[in-house]
Amino acid sequence: MNHELLRDIRVEKGVTQEEMAKCLGYKSKSTYCNIELGVTKVSTDVANKIAARLGMNTKQKISVFLPE
């Protein structure tokens, strides 16, 4: 997973970590922050929710979520 690219896309879209956490049903932004830091791995379901919230196109999804 390309954590830096995920963060860059989120920032470019003007979405905060707090907004992402809420969208994913997390109680605090730290849980989402751990995804961007690479501490927490994401399930396919969570990856799809992130991609939908950020309006990612197919190329972005592949670049962010497929293993390097």
From TrEMBL:
Residues 6-61 form the HTH cro/C1-type domain. InterPro entries: Cro/C1-type_HTH, Lambda_DNA-bd_dom_sf. One of its GO terms (molecular function) is DNA binding. This is XRE family transcriptional regulator. It comes from Blautia obeum.
